[in-house]
């Protein structure tokens, strides 16, 4: 069978094993993420969600197993390798520089220099170009809560900071973005704003992996939900086939992995 563009996952892994001394964090995990979908990863504390995405994003190297990007096997040694393959991660701490403005944060590490000797020799930055591009990138993601691109990040609300971190992750050609608990510290309205950005990413054709303990959020925004339990991927369900209660029951082991499935 020939794989078509649609049937080849943007990012996939087979048989991932990762141990930390005696602890088996991943016990032979498969995952498939397609372009234009939101795949939620759920599981109890210690189920292996973070370890899985660390292996997928080059922050950890699996002991066993393979990872493929658009059908081609890859070996990530460090996060830069994954980033070069278009896989971006937004961690809970967001790694933004709070004392700098939004535009500068978006371009941290990829600064635009002035043309000619001013940029080449004196390394002067083209702030105007960065502000203009930052405005375009934030606007393209439909992030309406940000009005002023020169606002300092520490003065932003939690939801706005999350949006800036996501914009930075996808502004430079990312095809896959991993969001680790993006709404954990947010109020209801801010959570909705972040979920809007997540939908926007999906509608633009990116693949999104969403780690979350918040079942209403997961069921609101995910196309598919992979359930991790004790280092294994025990089931992949959808909001159409399973209720949140069934997913949680599978997650905790109260229901067998092949049960549920609203009729
Ligand atoms: N660096 C490490 N050293 C030792 N053990 C680790 C390390 N990282 C993870 N573990 C262990 O691996 C297992 C899986 O942890 P992981 O953080 O992947 O789970 P998780 O599903 O993300 O949990 P949570 O929801 O609490 O973040 C746990 O038992 C954890 O204690």
Automatic annotation (TrEMBL):
<dbReference type="InterPro" id="IPR027417">
    <property type="entry name" value="P-loop_NTPase"/>
</dbReference>
<dbReference type="GO" id="GO:0005524">
    <property type="term" value="F:ATP binding"/>
</dbReference>
<keyword id="KW-0547">Nucleotide-binding</keyword>
<dbReference type="InterPro" id="IPR017871">
    <property type="entry name" value="ABC_transporter-like_CS"/>
</dbReference>
<dbReference type="Pfam" id="PF00005">
    <property type="entry name" value="ABC_tran"/>
</dbReference>
<dbReference type="InterPro" id="IPR003439">
    <property type="entry name" value="ABC_transporter-like_ATP-bd"/>
</dbReference>
<keyword id="KW-0067">ATP-binding</keyword>
<dbReference type="InterPro" id="IPR003593">
    <property type="entry name" value="AAA+_ATPase"/>
</dbReference>
<dbReference type="GO" id="GO:0016887">
    <property type="term" value="F:ATP hydrolysis activity"/>
</dbReference>
<feature type="domain" description="ABC transporter">
    <location>
        <begin position="11"/>
        <end position="255"/>
    </location>
</feature>
<dbReference type="InterPro" id="IPR050107">
    <property type="entry name" value="ABC_carbohydrate_import_ATPase"/>
</dbReference>
<protein>
    <submittedName>
        <fullName>Fructose transport system ATP-binding protein</fullName>
    </submittedName>
</protein>
